[in-house]
Amino acid sequence: MLRLMLDEIQEGISSLDMECSPQDIDLEFDGVIFIGKVFIKPSIFRQASKIYIKSIISTNIEMECSRCLEPVSVKLNAISEVQYFPLPKLAKDRIDDIGIGYYSEEYIDISDEVRESLILEIPMTVLCSEDCKGLCPHCGKNLNYGKCNCSEPDYLEESPVILRLLELKRKLEV
Ligand SMILES: [Zn+2]
Ligand SMILES: [Zn+2]
């Protein structure tokens, strides 16, 4: 949990440095390993019960290269901006919108905002390098470490020209 205690937030502008572990805020995503801590720098602007918080968030992740499947480190940076209000007594007075949040206790919990902002920044795919050669489709060898011993690719074996040549060769051998 990432809590900002209301009685510790002064009127006007203030800022903080916070950190937590990925588990603290249930940070999980398929195919992504979260490494080390999550760093959060909230800038706060308070006007009585209205509290605006802009957080600069960063953490490190590891993902598989989409061609060769080797682990690749990626730094994630995110920003979350939320205007918090006391939770209204009547449900109809609540506005469920992006950038609007409510607090009902003596603190504001920014865990959800931090988690969601980071998840939005996870790239769909990563490459270990722009010219990653990937894996051989036949033997699975990582071609960045050198060529494999697979002979001709399939497309040559299936080519009509090659098939005709192979047939000719067979006839000549008879
Ligand atoms: Zn790669
Ligand atoms: Zn191969």
Structure commentary:
- This protein is of the alpha+beta class and 174 residues long.
- The chain has helices at residues 111-120, 154-157, 160-173, and strands spanning 3-5, 12-15, 18-20, 33-47, 50-64, 71-86, 100-103, 107-109.
- It folds into 2 domains: 3-120, no CATH class; 143-173, no CATH class.
- The chain is elongated, with a radius of gyration of 27 Å.
- The N and C termini lie far apart (79 Å).
- The site of one zinc ion has 6 residues, from loops.
- One zinc ion binds at residues 65, 67-68, 70, 127-128, 132.
What's a quick, concise take on this entry?
The chain has 174 residues and is of the alpha+beta class.
Helices and strands in order:
Blueprint: E1 3-5, E2 12-15, E3 18-20, E4 33-47, E5 50-64, E6 71-86, E7 100-103, E8 107-109, H1 111-120, H2 154-157, H3 160-173
The chain binds zinc ion (ZN) (2 copies).
Instruction: Count all strands and give the number.
Output: 8
Helix-strand pattern, N to C? EEEEEEEEHHH
| Count of separate DSSP helical elements | 3
Small molecules bound in the structure, each named once: zinc ion
How many distinct folded domains? 2
Low-confidence stretches: none
Mean pLDDT: 91
Shape: elongated
| Rounded Rg | 27 Å
Helix content: 10-25%
